[in-house]
Amino acid sequence: MTTLNERIHDQITHAYQNAPATRKRLDDAGVTPDDIQSVADLTKIPVLPKDALVGLQQADPPFGGLLAVPLSEIRHIFLSPGPLYEPDAGHDPSILAMAAEALRRSGFGPGDVVLNTLSYHLVPAGLLLDEALTGLGCTVVPGGVGNTELQVKLLADLSITGYVGTPSFLLTLLQKAAELGAPVKLAKALCTAEPLFPHQRQQIVERGLTVGNAYATAELGFLALNTDGGREMRLLPEPVVQVVDPETGGAVPPGTPGEVVVTNFNRAYPLIRIGTGDMAILLDPQPGSSRQEERAIVLIGRSGEAKKVRGMFVHPNQLRFAIGQLLPGVAVQGAVSHDGEGKDFFVVRVAGEDNGKGEAIADAVRQVSRLRVDRVEFVGAGGLEVSAPGMVDERAWG
Q1: 349 is a domain residue
Q2: Considering only CA atoms, which of 225, 188, 190, 182 is closest in space to residue 205?
Q3: Which residues pair with 226 in a beta bridge?
């Protein structure tokens, strides 16, 4: 049986030999396929930001030199926001397998009639979920996006039991069904394509549905899943997901914020060390396990919003989570400057008047960021604008 490390080496070799842009990228970094013998060796390859894919495609259309098979072997070409052209996943069975796994873990199976409200137009999501659902023995109703009243009629007339799509549209359908008195029998949902907030999940669950919440990207497929309502999303077995320092590309230890970087096994379109721009904290409940699916991530936002303090990234959502436990709905901002000795000085600014909770706030932030707070500042009710950035860097770099 081929090991994961062997598959990684084979995929890098294949991409190097057949995708000109990947060959140039490795050559520029002084890396050869023989240097990549394991998942750990992937850190030798610089991260390719997702935004850079747009530039590659503009310079060398349509696929930026990343296609590794003749175009005649591609069944579909999609267009995702960016804009980015993407060949179908027919050369990567794992993309379909992971979509099916996310559905199975969310309770979908033979006999379910499922309304698929993801788009079938240009983007890959609708067709991917359609194929995964039918492969599980489900009957699919290809609803696509919009047409709320018509889709409510479908729910009622066809006794639909499952839903796939965004959580916001699911709530819209449930509300409209209640207004119309439509007999809806929905029992399960897989939500993706946008965040599932706790209050949304609560409203869905209160209507008797079980909910799977999937983290996925158009280029890389399904990456992680949560089914219990917590913030942790368990990684799926494939593709290879790493959480790295956005500046160096090196792995960060569990519990430390980093950027989600992914390497797939698509033979037609091998994407190697793609930086998603998403920030996450890696959780490793079973240290030492080599199985990716034993790990989980907590998504905390986009990498551009994070700032490094004393060598560790801090994201605004970490601060909001910490403050929210003590002062729900209160605006907060983190600021890093230099003290008199040129060392990082970390300040947390909180909207409102001093309420005596400064020490508790500092401790809450330390718990989630693992960083000491040097000072908590209360800046008055109007001291933080709604549009104010959640983290600011006030260090003098000149």
Answers
A1: yes
A2: 188
A3: 213
